Amino acid sequence: xxxxxxxxxxxxxxxxxxxxxxxxxxxxxxxxxxxxxxxxxxxxxxxxxxxxxxxxxxxxxxxxxxxxxxxxxxxxxxxxxxxxxxxxxxxxxxxxxxxxxxxxxxxxxxxxxxxxxxxxxxxxxxxxxxxxxxxxxxxxxxxxxxxxxxxxxxxxxxxxxxxxxxxxxxxxxxxxxxxxxxxxxxxxxxxxxxxxxxxxxxxxxxxxxxxxxxxxxxxxxxxxxxxxxxxxxxxxxxxxxxxxxxxxxxxxxxxxxxxxxxxxxxxxxxxxxxxxxxxxxxxx
Length: 284
Ligand SMILES: Nc1nc2c(c(=O)[nH]1)N(C=O)[C@@H](CNc1ccc(C(=O)N[C@@H](CCC(=O)O)C(=O)O)cc1)CN2
Ligand SMILES: Nc1ncnc2c1ncn2[C@@H]1O[C@H](COP(=O)(O)OP(=O)(O)OP(=O)(O)O)[C@@H](O)[C@H]1O
Description:
binds adenosine-5'-triphosphate; binds the ligand Nc1nc2c(c(=O)[nH]1)N(C=O)[C@@H](CNc1ccc(C(=O)N[C@@H](CCC(=O)O)C(=O)O)cc1)CN2; 30% helix; Rossmann fold
């Protein structure tokens, strides 16, 4: 239920931001001064959800409560993923990868970032996609490497699967120097932009919300990369997440914090789910 008049902005908040207030669902919103600058910065991305009904006295959730809601949702989705039948999972892995391998936006892309899937984390498999990219000499691939626990992740260029080594979380990632002792190219220092990022995550919705594993690595990287692309006047890359059916949840339920970056589209076992106009353009 949209509550246009439930809450009046006091500091020049754009009128359209008020209409994103909604009742019910997970009962989340923000408290404190920071909310005003946050809404001004991201009015389109916010859905501030009111906790109380009727709407005259409104209780706002703190950031702490929102992070708790994120944690609870992560636990639920992880449980659903663990109880997924392995045969069904394998069919969904094939359906998602086969769809991408046929997609013009994948075949036309020259540079991309992709994740190296971890089966123990029950992530949508990317092995077929990576094999395909690595044997295509026209494509340049960057994959994540965690640098520290402070949300710092780099995307480094690899040219073969042997460039990877398991990290402490048992995820394969590139060693920073290649066999000749040269630094691998960091996508942030590259002369040309990537066209596409294939993203992992725990939960998604059809409005573009994405819940990651809680490290803040992808959100931090994505907002820095988008800023670099803006500064260079490049075209923004498509942000496309890969998702099992069970990971797509009702719109608006994924709790939001200010640093969350929205995605352009999803690929699920039933195909392409465009969200932004950029995604509709590539999949008319
Ligand atoms: N394949 C893949 N690579 C990736 C990511 C990812 O999500 N998937 N990342 C995306 O950020 C970064 C690594 N971040 C990670 C963050 C948490 C966990 C992890 O194992 N989390 C456990 C819970 C650990 C805990 O709560 O103590 C889990 O999710 O079950 C793994 C990677 C970079 N590389
Ligand atoms: N209770 C908390 N208070 C303040 N910051 C927190 C809290 N819990 C997590 N964070 C920080 O917020 C950042 C982003 O967390 P968020 O839950 O948005 O991650 P995510 O969407 O799973 O991230 P990603 O997919 O980018 O890895 C992380 O740096 C994390 O350390």
